[in-house]
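Input record, target 12 of the design panel.
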């Protein structure tokens, strides 16, 4: 009888140790290093986001985002098998441990947390080429980044894919919801190409400027906040 009890206790302690080891895999500090939407991925820093999540042993968690007004948010968490559910303000964020990272989805956007913070490179537009000539603009350009609240993110994140073909004094735009191979007249002055929008157009004007890193900045004057795209020349 004593031998049987000893075996049961040994098995129970082994099971508890395994459970604790599994829980320990989730405890500690995690950094949000990547976000995805569809096929596009970007570093949170590209949108001014800096999120840290601390999973505590007592079933609570703390999310810290220095850029937000409420820098710290209290949360709770539960573990069901390999699924970690973090609850913040009544909303659940479900994460699973994959290859040493916590991955999940929140609000239709994929999230990937890592044990170490990845210092991602954030795109910053180069200075404008002041002495550009009209011939420098010729060719096919495709949107790479779009400006959002002072940050530059991949244009494809919001289906802002645009192709611009510049040939002399004309520019043909295709994509971005509203353009279907629309050809516009351009004027060249002070190193920039411009198009003045008409009454039936959605914008007051368009300005194209070459940048010192080889990209082209395309600004749509919407009458409110301008829409800015960074275009890369197609090979």
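The sequence produced for target 12 reads:
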């Amino acid at each position: 009888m004593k031998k049987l009890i000893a075996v049961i206790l040994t098995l129970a302690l082994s099971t508890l140790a395994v459970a604790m080891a599994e829980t320990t895999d989730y405890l500690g500090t995690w950094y949000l290093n990547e976000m995805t939407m569809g096929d596009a991925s970007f570093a949170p820093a590209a949108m001014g986001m800096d999120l840290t999540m601390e999973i505590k042993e007592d079933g609570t968690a703390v999310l810290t985002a220095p850029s937000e007004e409420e820098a710290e948010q209290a949360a709770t968490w539960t573990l069901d098998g390999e699924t970690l559910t973090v609850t913040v303000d009544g909303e659940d964020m479900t994460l699973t441990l994959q290859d040493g990272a916590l991955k999940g989805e929140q609000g239709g956007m994929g999230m990937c947390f890592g044990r170490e913070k990845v210092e991602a490179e954030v795109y910053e537009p180069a200075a404008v080429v002041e002495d550009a000539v009209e011939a420098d603009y010729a060719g096919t350009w495709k949107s790479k980044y779009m400006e959002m609240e002072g940050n530059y993110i991949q244009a494809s994140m919001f289906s802002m894919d645009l192709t611009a073909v510049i040939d002399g004094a004309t520019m043909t735009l295709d994509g971005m919801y509203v353009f279907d191979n629309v050809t516009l007249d351009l004027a060249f002055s002070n190193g920039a190409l411009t198009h003045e929008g008409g009454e039936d157009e959605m914008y007051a004007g368009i300005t194209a400027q070459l940048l010192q890193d080889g990209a082209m900045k395309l600004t749509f004057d919407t009458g409110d906040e301008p829409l800015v795209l960074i275009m890369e020349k197609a090979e």
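Helices lie at 2-24.
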